[in-house]
From TrEMBL, chains A, B, C, D:
Protein name: Chorismate synthase
Cofactor(s) the protein requires to work: FMNH2
Residues binding NADP(+): 48, 54
Cofactor comment: Reduced FMN (FMNH(2)).
Broad enzyme group: lyase
């Protein structure tokens, strides 16, 4: 739809640059009457915020979110919710060189070509800081989902960090116990050593993230351009540095035969469908089936690295680039809460398309409050 | 973003079921003055149409496209272009069983759950026949691109069929010379044998398609939710049976280091950027750089197969399903022209966002025609 | 909103020119399970179709509507409904002059300036024929409203024809008994004489139409740019030749004091609000209150007249224009069913925004049909 | 489109309540490279801000606007521009009664019915304070228009205040010299006396505002649902308290004959069209012709008055309402700069649709800055 907005009934518009005074988002279309306060949003932002350990950028941001509108007496009113996060630890002087020289693999050359005039400080709008606003919006979506689809639960985790995949049995309880949100204590240990090495070498690496939604009601999504998977693909691909998106079997579906791909169906004790497998990732024909919705996406390695790369300047001179400043060696780590947030926003949007934004008249004269 | 519409300034709305009287699309936002006739659209539809060889469904459809509006004296007027394709070879009796029993891996159970009431004949709206309308719309987009971005060229081809990848050197001249649009004569031979085997066994397989756009002007796409790759991901994921989408390096970007991923830049003889590699797939920060735009997507295997699979009925009974009727053993083959069409539509839409739908006043009193 | 589409969840895209092979619309977002057939739509089209009496254009069009998709076994499926009306009585030769000379007050000069290349036959897309597609779409909306908001009833009528206003007491039973849809037998007689005079003189006149919706549930519409009155204003102003739109008191609200404008509220026997007046036209703050929704709009006189007017040619020459061909002396007459149709579409769209497109899961395994 | 957003390429999303901490808007789609600072926006806000004379609410707000994003080194970057205005003079205790009792003619009953839960302080989101955000957005649009359509000039003024119309010759130089933006010193004097009387009596009155845009390029607007007048009608009707919108001749077009309505055309010295009159209001077939674009709208009287009116309470009791607090006796006065702002936004949006958001690639390697 518009360039800085996503969603159709639950619509999020983000704004703000990495080194401007603030960033945030307008959340439009949240149903009325949902319990919401700053603390419940802060919980999600704290998961994404930088500087929490040696594996993320050392920029120190509190990422404190303020609700400026749309909430009254602790509940949403149905009007737009403005969420603002002030930037406090910008160090713009670090970026002087970037104004003139383009980093290979970074958006700065594309922004320059398109706009001529850009905010180069910290990547401006192409910075990972933009995703803080998504996480805040995702917090609103989660609050609404908690009320409207009580059994729904969204979990994101890393399944690959650079050369190393998640291996061995998955232990979901581990996710919150390591800096990589990986469901395996052993893998976390292996990755820590690997990333320490990369960080010291001034290098970086990519990542693969999986986000699973359990308890999704069947019937979300619509043929043909409002498919649930279409919107999930767009949502994940819109996260900066993402280069691929998969639903269920994903790219590997190309390798399967029809027999192997068929998720066989039997009846459960309640007379409702039970599936023997989930190659579909919970979505058939663009519509949720009631199985877990499974999305994976790949984040490319941070392009701001200490290893010199050949590049050019804005004025048309060949040069070499080494990027100092504070950067995540694996920006994919912080993409985990972002992927969860996007999943929440897309699911709520589709739920509202089916059930409506208020469900009908909500205030009746003479009724008990 | 309505459910059967895609695009923002170049907007396509498709309609029609597999076994209804007709299907088609409304193309809204095509610039005025573009040369267009039915023959130039038919050329693209003929590439996609079924029944051309033993590797696609034996349903015989001429897929003859009619232009019902928006074109006058051989040129577009800027008003909506209605394209209609009549269905002529429906055999609805083949689908009697499907009304009651759901095919594992097929959209029919999801449609039933969502809508209660569905057109089960030939999959209704979830059928691959819907993609004929996309190819017609893509033909309009190509005509406009030919006028507005003369050097732009879009090529699609298969890079995997089930167990077998495209191997050996790529020979683009081969693409139109084999039924699989694969750029390798040897691979085509190997795939023919493989698919013959699958077809005889009543099986099916998935496919991977790559679509490349050369000559894309830099500056297409916009941060943050109108990224060129976001819209390409949505466009490809909206094609039926697609389960994954990749831009450039795609999912493999997760495995790379920052040094490996950096597409180093030097200056060409014209003083403009030359890239040493194209991990980015021609897009940085959601914006085209002038490199080739490279998209890949995976199509799952056809779910209508002759091998029996466990399933259930609408009335709540366990059963086994064997799907007769006429089906593509590898529906991904015909997805090649569909992927090209989606690429054309997305690129034109973004070109118009930057340059406008008319470029300013076009008719001046007293001017030569 | 795209250029030939209106609505957010219930979306209508119209296409077709006055003298092309056909015209029609795609109706996207109609809820599933609604009873619909061609006869029920034809009923509304027959009210608008030309050539029914001496007061409308003598072009003879059956305006027979065909449903090409989205309906199966007499009920909507939730997928897009394509409605097509073939043009049968075009006489393009009548319009030879118009290609070169612009009619004062007509869209042809504006189309030429914008597009350079236009379909001048019968006004192309600016013709009143486009409104046939709206009436067809309105028929779908009415069918859905009949199911979802049973007490809702929409009635349009003329309140002014040129120099003559509707006068005397209103008798709603008269609306269908005269060619002007005016709720007064005496006024109808007076208008007939007036219009006969204008027609013979080769002149034309404007009209004012009022559309009232009774039984509208409270709570439709949303602040601030999705107000019910905002969408009604846009819907009515988008009808060709409309120059003004009023809600309730309309432009006359400027003349009132706060006391006079206040619709005083008491309680009805059911404990719900009863209003002493309806200056608001049933809408406060953009949201329906449960009172009748009242919209009025003005249609300018037909610009194709036999009286010579000063004008210019495309090649830049001054001239005089006299328009022959077949035209409505008061095109506003046929705008009555069009206004009703737009009201139906807007109300349904807002109802769906509040209650959703399906209301939740509709097909349950094992349930009775 | 979405509920708190308007525009298609130049998109404005407003947020904020009358008595929350702040209000503002996100302006998305402003072209890059436009000179913009807070002072240039403040100029427009100062025209609308309350408390400037005895004819507007005595609430004292500085309405100081802050630019939080999208501008770098004094020029727009093409990314979203966040504008924030802090509320400083809320007196929420004034509104205690309103929480329980509904004001006849006010949105509070409709909000309650729709949402159940609302921010009743100062009308929440239905307050005229929301329009401050529109004026800020309009300031951005004006800055862009100044660069892209240099001769374009927008002027708004009052043409009626309650019982009294603007009379006598129009003297545009007077507009900025009286508190009513009326182009006549004598009328201003008459209105001052009239409004003093109303204010003392605890009453209020409606108003009619006209907004004229000179120098609008021909070709803006598009058939059929993206007409320039359609979008203007929606824009004006979305302003709170507006009940009618007219283009050119407006509702009076219903009274005209075809001859009277025809704006005859001759050729000017430059060979381009010259019109003898402007019944069309500068728009034919939804497209600008190059004549002045003329829009009028009516604002109903303020519903918060000191005269007692019959009403009901939320809990279902009949009562009488007298509204104390600080209110505009004629809220239409402050609608003048709001109408201008909406005109600017709509015109820019349509200009961008035709010419594009960047006009093509803007940053070229090696070019002079």
């Amino acid at each position: 739809m518009s360039h800085n907005t996503f969603g159709h009934l639950f619509r999020v518009t983000t704004w703000g640059e990495s080194h401007g005074p603030a960033l945030g988002c307008t959340v439009d279309g949240c149903p009325p009457g949902i319990a919401l306060d700053e603390a419940s949003l802060q919980r999600w932002l704290d998961r994404r915020k930088p500087g929490q350990n040696r594996y993320t950028t050392q920029r120190r941001e509190a990422d404190a979110v303020r609700i400026l509108s749309g909430v009254f007496e602790g509940r949403t009113t149905g009007t737009p919710i403005q969420l603002m996060i002030e930037n406090t630890d910008q160090r713009s002087k670090d970026y002087g060189d970037i104004a003139e020289t383009f980093r290979p693999g970074h958006a700065d050359i594309a922004y320059f070509q398109k706009y001529g005039h850009r905010d180069y400080r910290g990547g401006g709008r192409s910075s990972a800081r933009e995703t803080a606003a998504r996480v805040a919006a995702g917090g609103v979506a989660r609050a609404a989902l908690a009320a409207l689809a009580p059994g729904l639960r969204i979990t994101g985790y890393m399944t690959r960090m650079g050369a190393h995949a998640l291996e061995g049995p998955r232990d979901m309880d581990q996710i919150d116990k390591n800096p990589f949100w990986v469901p395996s204590a052993e893998t976390a240990e292996r990755w820590a050593a690997y990333l320490d090495g990369l960080r010291k070498a001034g290098s970086s690496c990519g990542a693969e993230i999986e986000v699973v939604a359990e308890g999704v009601p069947p019937g979300l999504g619509a043929p043909v351009y409002g498919k649930l998977d279409t919107d999930l693909a767009a949502a994940m691909m819109s996260i900066n540095a993402v280069k691929g998106v998969e639903i269920g079997e994903g790219m590997a579906a190309a390798r399967l035969t029809g027999e192997a791909n068929a998720d066989e169906i039997t009846l459960g004790p309640d007379g409702q469908p039970v599936y023997a497998s989930n190659h579909a990732g919970g979505i058939l024909g663009g519509i949720s089936t009631g199985q877990d919705v499974v999305v994976r996406f790949a984040v490319k390695p941070t392009s701001s690295i200490l290893t010199p790369r050949a590049s050019i300047t804005r004025s048309g001179r060949e040069t070499e680039v080494v990027t100092k400043g504070r950067h995540d060696p694996c920006v994919g780590i912080r993409a985990v809460p972002v992927g969860e947030a996007m999943m929440a926003c897309v699911l709520l949007d589709h739920l509202l398309r089916d059930r409506g934004q208020t469900g009908g008249v909500r205030g009746r004269i003479g009724a008990e409050d």
